[in-house]
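Think of the structure tokens as a kind of shorthand, similar to the way a musician reads notation: each symbol stands for something richer, in this case the local conformation of the backbone. In the example below we present two proteins back to back. Begin with the first one, reading the sequence and then the tokens, and try to describe in your own words what changes along the chain.
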Amino acid sequence: MNGAAGRLRATGRNALLPLLCLFTLLFWVAAPRAAEEPPGVAGLTRAEALRLGEQLYRKGLLPSGQPAQAIVQGDTEVEADMFSCESCHMRSGLGSYEGGVLTTPTNGAVLFKAQFNYRQPSPDQLKTIPAYMLPLYQAPPRRPAYTDTTLSVALRDGMDPNGRVLDEVMPRYLLAERDMAILVYYLKSLSPEYSPGVDQNTIRLATVVTDRVPAKEREAMLKPLEKYVRGRNSRAKTVESRAGYGFYAEWMDLIYRRLSLSVWELKGPPETWRSQLEEYYRKEPVFALIGGISHGEWRPVHEFGEEHRIPCLLPATDLPVISQSDWYTLYFSKGHYQEGEAAARFLAAGEQPDRDGELLQIFRDSAEGRASAAGFRESWQKLGRKAPAERMLSAGEAVTVELLEQATLEKRPAVLLLWTGPEALPLLEKVAALSGRPETIFLSASLLQDKIGALPEQLREKSYITYPYALPAGKGGAHRGNGAPLGRERRIAARMNSLGLLLTDSLMMMRGEFYRERFFEVIDMLQDRGHPYSAEFERYSFGPGQRYASKGCYVVQLSPGPGSELLQKSEWVIH
């Protein structure tokens, strides 16, 4: 039990992840058995004790809601919300290896079980061991199983059952008896057995499809996933035929599982989806939801996953839930919201005007339009600027020359942000002729899609386009092609192929630790990935608690003349 938040997230973590997985497997992980429920905390229900223990473990907060106190580095008193158990030992309690420091598991299955040592090499042998292998020979000394009493001593005084003093970066928590009992109870209950949806042979997965998704888009999402599952399962006989051979058997008995994939189809309006999801899950608990596609918002599925703590991995949606705290859904990007963010950052960096009336957003009252406008508005205000003027078009309201003229003449904006589809492009020529015409126009590539090249040529010099995708290959600052993103079906299929690659890596790195929290912890420690792993986007970036893999957006213009080459006007604008 050692580690502290201050030395986490070191650069070398990704290269050492396979080592961590091997180390964890050899020392601590065995196929879990159904754990006996630990004795409770007097005066608290099991649910309440777990809630309070989780709060203390993850956030460093006492039952009162106040931060616990702790001592680090021998004499420095700190508040435990800065040095929570989770920050080093991870949400799953299964530990980590970062910056050359091993953080051991703190879940009950490990703490309350005797641990052993690797054979220690001689000083001469130690010199021959590669540096990256040294952690294997610097394992915690042999110790007996913890008891409630000895674990309390370790947490308060930093001493294990053998009297060994733990690393001084391990906080010494100043907890009262009852608070200590709550934390110990929680640790006993942490990752005691496999998560639902996993048995000795199979990992059960599901994907969600809503009934209004067009057939071609449904097929574009499902086919790559089904192909991936078939391909993985086709290797089962080869794996199983080797499972009886020594060391390989030790690994494969713990690691390999077949996959099953169910399709959960949701019918009717979004407000009915939650009850349908609950019924699917009641009949067939799954380890995770993968992929998935909906017509419109994803929020009902997101909220279902958060409440049940079910990982939801990379749904094909451009309307994700925007949250800084939700943990169980990993999205490809922030979608339309992200383009609004990028426009705000680009304008702010260029010191564009921010006086009242000089920025005007026109957007449709649709999920896509509202998300784009919200991304700009919220980011613009976070940068210390005043909220832009806005004109929201009702669902059936047409974009007309008169509407654009009225809005621009009334507000006389220096910058017009037009978050609509391609129907407004031909009308912009009229706006360009107005005396109060905007100096700059912003448009969205994801909303324009294959009509991006229809932007009138006389407006291209003053028009900027948010472009959240990888740029087509080109030379001399121009990116060839017609500027249009991949078609809808191709984009969906590309995303699902990326998901398959991510699944391969994450399942391999889990090394038999089939816990939902561990699933995302492993993904959080993956290296950044570029093309072809992220065929649609510039790159995917991972990190602890980061739930939007593609984190940037280009700002581009269209070249004059035929061909509509993209002219890159920004770097990858990171939100």
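Once you have a description of the first chain, move to the second and do the same.
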Amino acid sequence: MSRMFRRFGIQWPLTRSTTWADVVVLVGIAVLIYFGVELAGKAPEIIKGPKISLSPSALPIYAAFSTARMAAAYALSMLFTLIYGYIAARSRSAERIMLPLLDVLQSVPILSFLPVVLLSLSAVMPEGIAVALASIVLIFTSQAWNLTFAWYQALTTIPKELREANAIFRFNSWFRFKTLELPFAAISLIWNSMMSWAGGWFFLMAAEIFTVGDRDFRLAGLGSYIQTAANEGNVHAVMLGIAVLVLVVVALDQLVWRPILVWADRFKLETVTEEIEPHSWFYDVLHNSRIVRWFGKNVLQPLSERIDEWSLKVFPSSSSVEFGGGRRSAVAAILTAAIVLGLIYGVYRASGMLIKVPAAEWGAIGIGVLATLARVAAALIVAFAWTIPLGVLLGTNRRVANWLQPLVQIMASIPATAFFPVLLLILIKLPAGINIAAVLLMLMGTQWYLLFNVIAGASAIPQDLKYTSSLIGLSRWGRWKTLILPALFPYVITGAITASGGAWNASIVAEYAEFGGRSVFTVGIGSLIAQATAKGNFPLLLASTLSMITAVVIINRLFWRRLYRLAADRYRME
């Protein structure tokens, strides 16, 4: 086994610091979930949301509400990404805790977050504010993790010569962020932003309408409209809601993402331009607008200059800031002691809840983890098979991308959960039909993470390297082997980590479904979580959620995380 891992640049056995960090993170998550459950028990017994109208006239305002929640969650996700990923990439000691924690966070199922977050907020806040914040936080959990992984991957793969140039000019942290780090990561962040929005739309139905026991939570929006229509069997309303969602996605593509991609094309590492330059009609409108030029010259440029001047006063030009050793050590010691005491108390109380889980249910959890792992592996294999060739085509062929990119965004944004009951009705009569349907739904929820990252990686390949590979007469396979696959490797690993976590997350809606007045489910950890949530069985919810998290973290630490290191060490674009 050790020889096999060394072939991939993986050290075996794992270091003590890695194991220690994972244990601390898992214990911390268990404590947080326990306290959330405790608060959930103090929430109002019945939370009634507004009645969702299925009238077509309600769709415009519902679309506006959902888009606003998505935008708020995206802003929160980007803020989290820039801060969290920067600290993890710049500090090796912080990285040992923060990356395992990120593995945990991206693998915690949104439906495990949902009752805890909603009911906890309802216990301490007014009902209306709690419901709105819960929705934004839960959409955030479907948007943030792939952005953070992409930002971290970009920071750890910046070419050495660019870092050396930065050191020669003695840029402070703000100028380094502005002129090197953010431009280098721009293409990856933009494509992953598009994926984050697609993931947000996918889970919008779960974030806008939800029930746990007697508690009913809902918000007016596209997600709740589609879910209500699906629950009532109103196929016409479902199609109408999805049509409006498609229109919103197309509008965002034309007015936001395509112009941003055209603008970000300047950040590619290349000395020659492509034969076919990216194009956007809305970007041309903005670029040629006198009002936009006036705004940039008289508002944005002076504001940027003031920020630059302020940064020169606040941040030194050296790469690190020194603090007083004694004071820093004292504060760190106090914080560490407080955290340790809190973890000990939380472990004591959470253990009391886990003890209530019968041995038979622990056995079902173990079998469920293995069953779901097999489905996740099957979904990833299928996703790898088609996303890499299509992603390279879209990332390297501008003509094809102009036609297919909007279609890909639309397909990624349509919530497959709306069609899942219909898919089940078709497949449930086949042998192992529920398992096939579960794999298909997991695939529809995760394949886009891989595709969008592959497109970002293929788009970032310098044009001069493409010309060089043509000039030396490389065969098609030789070009893939020496240029395309090495250039894609960091992006594929980023996409694989988030796709794997997304597949585990999607298992909750893929392995358990309710329609036609009956429940259909298969063996799996996602099915156990969904059933525990529906019944309000918090001990089983805690045990099954922690088991899923542990499985995902072990896989990430044994395999994906080590491949991340390999990408940073061997496959920089330098």
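Compare your description with these statements about the second chain. Residues 103 and 435 are 26 Å apart (CA to CA).
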